[in-house]
Amino acid sequence: MRTEPLSRPESSGAGNLAIQDRHLSEIVSELWENTETLVRKELELSVSELSQRADEIKQEVGEVAIGGAIVYAGVLTLIAAAALLLSKVVEPWIATLIVGAIVSAGGYALLERGKHQLSRTRPDFPETTHSIEKTSHTMKEAIHGAARR
């Protein structure tokens, strides 16, 4: 392990920084502190995205529930009308049995399709993912740069 001080190049222009000699242990300590802060910030971003997405989902679920209730009332009316129409041709109990079987089969098919699609759904957090990838890339470059010195 290297124990002699590393020097930082002096920057040019206004506010020149003096050359700073630091030991490797100081650099590693600073890297650790910065990494810790970075991880905290990444977690805060994740929590923020989750919270924002949860609020959006609540609103969307409310709209779906209200729309679903209205559609349900309309579908029940159409089912009753279909049973009444079919009762002109066959006995009323047979008409309701036929309509009920058709509606149940259609509902079951939709239920299975929805379950299948829901099982494939996964949360997506693009900002957090991008930020973590960028941080990882930056840290790798910093480590490789420090190792070359």
Describe the structure in your own words.
This protein is an all-alpha fold and 149 residues long. It has one domain. 77% of the residues lie in helices and 3% in strands. The chain contains 3 helices and 2 strands, in the order ββααα. It has a two-stranded antiparallel sheet. Helix 1 packs antiparallel against helix 2 and helix 1 packs antiparallel against helix 3. The longest helix has 63 residues. The two termini are 12 Å apart. The relative contact order is 0.07.
Short description:
The protein is mainly alpha-helical. It is about 75% helix and about 5% strand. The protein is rod-shaped, with a radius of gyration of 32 Å.
Helix and strand topology:
Blueprint: E1 6-7, E2 21-22, H1 24-86, H2 92-120, H3 126-148
Antiparallel strand pairs: 1-2
Features:
149 residues, two-stranded antiparallel sheet, 3 helices, disordered N terminus, mainly alpha
* Secondary-structure-derived class: mainly alpha
Sheet with most strands: 2 strands, antiparallel
Strand % is under 5%
- Our count of helices gives 3
Unreliable spans are 1-11, 13-19
Strand order of the largest sheet: 1-2
What is the total number of structural domains? 1
Q: Write down how many β-strands occur, each being a DSSP E stretch of 2 or more residues.
A: 2
Amount of helix: over 70%
Rounded to the nearest angstrom, the radius of gyration is: 32 Å
